[in-house]
Specification:
The chain is mostly helical. It is built from five helices and three strands. A hairpin with a 2-residue loop joins β1 and β2.
Length: 140
């Protein structure tokens, strides 16, 4: 049996602290949906709309995306929203506008569309899966 492939990640040094970005956890995606994209379906947004969000909420978005070295995704989620807000204040003071834009571009590279399920909301509710539909997709 081969080892599972390690997720891609990008590393950054900001204000003397080291951070990394990798595929989103459920909690990170939920925070993005609730506090950055706020009801907008990412797949339905035009490029300029995404860039407007980055301009207005960039440090907050980065605070959700970035994980400090020595911290796991689980620990980031356990630190809660207060940890995100504290990091956003730090990043707003340390990052340049171009850094914010570049780090957010890395987010799209690291998270394939299939991983952005909460952000790819459909305008109408999806029908609930039927028990037959679920079991037909389970391995035998």
């Amino acid at each position: 049996m081969s080892d599972p492939e390690k997720p891609k990640q990008k590393s950054y040094e900001i204000g003397g602290r080291r951070f990394y970005q990798t595929e989103l956890s459920w909690q990170q995606e939920k925070w993005l949906a609730d506090h950055v994209f706020t009801g907008k379906a990412l797949g339905a947004m035009e490029h300029h709309e995404v860039m407007d969000l980055v301009r207005s909420r960039g440090p907050l978005m980065l605070a959700i995306l970035l994980i400090e070295d020595g911290q796991t995704r689980v620990q980031k989620a356990q630190a809660g929203w207060a940890g995100v807000e504290q990091l956003a204040a730090f990043l707003a003071g340390e990052c340049t506008a171009i850094n914010v834009a570049l780090y957010v571009l890395d987010f799209f590279d690291l998270n394939p569309a299939g991983n952005l399920w909460l952000l790819a909301q459909t305008p109408e509710p999806m029908p609930a899966p039927t028990p037959t539909g679920l079991t037909s997709r389970l391995p035998s």
